[in-house]
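Handover notes (outgoing to incoming on-call)

Open items:
1. Cytochrome c oxidase subunit 1: sequence verified, structure written out, both below. Nothing else pending on this one.
2. Nothing else urgent.
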Amino acid sequence: MTTALPSKSAPSAALPGLDAATLSSLKKLTQYYAVTAFIALMIGVLLGPLQALNYGGINVYDYPLLKVLIKSYYQGLTLHGVLNALVFTQFFISGWMLYLPVRDLNVRPNMRFAWFTYLMMTAGLLTAAVPLLTNDATVLYTFYPPLEGSPVFYIGAAVMVAASLLVAGQVVWLWLAWKRAHPGRVTPVVTYMSVATWLMWVVAALGLVVEVVVMLIPWSLGLTRGVDPLLARTLFWWTGHPIVYFWLLPAYISWYAFLPRQAGGRMASEGLTRLAFAMFLVFSVPVGLHHQYADPNVQNSWKIIHMFLTFLVAVPSLLTAFSAAASLEDAARARGGRGLIGWVRRLPWGNASMTAQVLAMVSFIFGGAGGIVNASMAFSPVVHNTAWIPGHFHITVGTATTLTFMGVMFWLVPHLTGKRLASPRTALASVWWWFTGMMLFALGMHWQGLAGVPRRALVSASAQQGVYDAMHLGLPKIITAASGGVLFIAAILFYTVLWRTLLSRRVDDPESTPIPRSDAISAAGETLADASPLVRRTEPLLALTFVALVLVILVYGPVIAPMLTNYQFIPGQRLW
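Cytochrome c oxidase subunit 1 structure tokens:
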């Protein structure tokens, strides 16, 4: 029960469709993006157990052999965060969300430009990797001055972000060309979700681009006498929270468009899907001040406004939860499922790709609830900068996003290469081990965070161990330490499957594993004239982007303007 993209629109004479050579090149490019992403994840995952052991009260960073490779806990944390949260996600998403709309629209991209963006992103990664590996950019991956890294690191990171924006530009350009060639047509839903995500990222990335290019690079080169930490933090969080949605929305694309078919069902509603992504586009960016409740010189009124806007983002997340659950129930009942929740047993739990994504969705229930706590001015001070935050982060990005992408790889690699998935049983086991390990880590870290254990700290080597002993954290420390071992086993299982698949012989036509495009219970229709009012009003994505940009300026402009007029020049510091 699978159908391949594209399905709705034949190419017009003015807009050439994909030919065999272009499709082959596109698949190879997507494979390069995805494999590079998972190499970065693999290296980052190897550092993960060291973080878990630290919060289990075991300091391994002083071992002589490890000291040769990693100078300190803080360098290890920087590498872990940059590789897993920035490199892995950016590479996978760039390949994923170029490939999907091109196949959905059946348009021919400029493959020279597409390959250039990959090479540019890789060059940025390699440039930034040098100071990271030499302990010259141990800044904890947050771009928080006055912690100062090498200018080479900031330049490499800027090149990577610029490359992702070029991918966004190419996708939007292709979509606009398709719109001109098909006037009055409804944008196919996979393309709609991809374009909305890219446009949101363009608006969101502006804060980080300004911080790095205008402030941090000149500062690290010694061209300015200092940098304003408060302004830098504000610009960072302009991007820093919306980037979470940039990581999550590509997973949502699979949950909405592909997971229902993999489970044997249908997408609940294309109109509801478009509404959710339109809301993410408009409301995802002006939310950053909820990370700065403790920062001085930011009026509480603006913090409260950002808090309510953050709560508003929960609405499309709840729409996603409803739609995904409805699609899965539709699938299970079609397979004979009965009862209020008994239908869950009828889902195809032997399918590793489906199971990975369903478990990712389950994890995000807890992640969404924790996000409401983090966004609340009443509750945030209790958990701010404690171990609760990385516990939350590993549910949202480490599980909801990463486990979804792992599940996607189980069908994407055969689709791109014509190679059959090696050992589906091992793939299924890796999914359950990863989910279990992440839930254990989240439990232990949330528990410790509520007790007041700080985040980003070498707590296992603290000079005041009596403080931690008095917290009676024996059990959560054991849980946290054990989670690192469970996740390490999960990684071994997953990468065994991935590398065995990639290194095996091609035995099938790649298109024999088609993209699992789902039909919809409530479809949007093909023409705007026949579409529902909801579909028509959410179709103009460029207009919605303009609304999003105006909203961002309205809620950030009055916050940033006083910082510019009272700019503080603070010199840099290198602590590790």
